Amino acid sequence: MARRLIAAIVVITALIACAPPADAGQRTSKAALQRALDGIVDARGGPPGVSVLIRRGGRDEFLRSGVADVRARRPPRRDDHMRIASMAKAFNGAVALALVSDGTLGLDDTIGARLPGMLPQAEAVTLRQALRHDSGLADYIRQPAFIERLQDDPAAYITPRELLGYVRDRPLEFAPGTRYAYSDTDNIVAGLMTEAATGRSYEELLEREVYRPLGLRDTSLPRTVAMPRPYLHGYDVTPGRPPEDISRVINPAGAWASGGIVSTPVDVGRFFRAYVRGRLFDDATRRSQFAFRQGSSSPPGPGSNAAGLGLFRYRTRCGTVYGHTGSFPGYRLFAAADEGGRRSVVFSVNAQIVPGQGSAAVSRRILRAQALAVCRALGR
Question: From CA 163, how far away is CA 243, in angstroms rounded?
Fold first, then answer.
C-alpha cells in the first residue's frame, strides 16, 4: 500500500493539465452546489466526504456531503484539521514576502548567496524564481533515492536539508526564468532561505509572520504522522473496496514548507483572504507577487490558471480568484479569495482524486464543483 501511495505522489506532481471550463448552464444557487457535492460522494470511485466553506457578504456558508470519518459516520466540520498539502506553499510565500517587505530578504537573492554550497549547480537561482516555479530546479520527490526512502519507512522524519540532498548534484532542467515547471524543491529552497536570512527556524517564522498576525490557532507544521483532533480522515479509494484510512501513514515532514502544514477550513479561509489582499506585506511586494505567468497549480484549479509568487490566479466564468490547490495521499484541496480579500472558498475532499490518480470522472466533478463554489462566493 505504501508503494502505491508514494508512486501516486510522483504521478500527481508530474501531471499538470489545463482545467476544463465549468458548465456554464449550471446555476450557482446553494441547492445546485449541494447537488454537485452529493454527486461527487455518490459517484462510483467518489470520496467518503467533501465540504466547502464559503465567505460572502461577511458571512460564512458551509456545505458538506458524506462523512469525515467512515467508522464514526461523522460528517465533515469547518473546524476539522486536515493536511493542506501544497496550499502550504502559499504560507511559505507569505513568510518569504513578509521578509522581502521588511528588507530582510530580497526577491533577487540567490541560492548561492543565502545557501552557499547547498546546490552547487543552482547557485544563480533567485528567490523570485523559486516562488514562481520557473527556477529549473529538479523535483526531489521524483528522485529514485527519495522514493526508496519513503517506501522503506513512510512515517520517518526527514530534514529539509536532507530533502535538498536528493537533488544536490542534479543539473538545472532549464535556464532559470525561461520556463514554468512546478517543483516541490522550489519551496524547500525558499523556506531554507528565510531561515538563513533571519537565523530563526521556519516554524518560528510561520508563527511570527503568519499565525500570530492572522489569529490562526489551529494551524501547525508537524514532524510526525499524528493529527490533532478533530480531523478530516484521509482515504485511499478503490472501487469495489472499502475506503482505507491513510491519514497517518506518510510523515508530512517529507514535504515541509512545500506541503507539510495541517490546518482547518476556518483558518485556511482566514489566511487566504488576508494573503491575497496583501495584509502581510507592503504594496510594492504585492505588485511583484501579482506578476503572473502561464502555469498551472497541481492539481489544476478551476478556470484558466496562471502562476505568481506563492500564488495562482484562477480566471473562471464568474470572475477571478487567487489561491492554491493541494494534493496529498488522502486529500484534494482548493482555496482562494477575491482580490479584495472579502470573499473566499475552501474546498476539501478526503481522498486524493486528481488527474492521473483515482476516477477521472470524479476528478472532473470535483473541478466543476470548485468552479460552482467560486461562482457562489462571488455572487454570480
Answer: 31
With beta carbons less than 8 A apart as the criterion, state whether 302 and 367 touch. Answer: yes
The x, y and z cell numbers of residue 123, run together, are 547557485
Are 307 and 292 in contact by the 8 Å Cβ rule? The answer is: yes
Set of cell numbers at residue 42: 455518490
pTM of the model: 0.93
All three cell numbers of 373, joined, read 463554489
Residues 6+ apart with CB under 8 A from 107: 100, 126, 127, 128, 131, 288, 309
Q: How far is CA 164 from CA 151, 283, 289, in A?
A: 18, 32, 25
d(CA 288, CA 93): 12
Could you tell me the three cell numbers for 269?
479561509
User: How many other CB atoms are there within 10 angstroms of residue 116's CB atom?
Assistant: 12
In this predicted model, what pLDDT tens digit does every residue of 280-296 receive, in sequence order? 999 999 999 999 999 99
Q: How far is CA 98 from CA 94, 161, 202, 311, in A?
A: 6, 23, 13, 14
Per-residue pLDDT of 112-171, as tens digits, reads 999 999 999 999 999 999 999 999 999 999 999 999 999 999 999 999 999 999 999 999
Query: How many beta carbons lie within 10 A of that of residue 280, not counting itself?
Result: 20
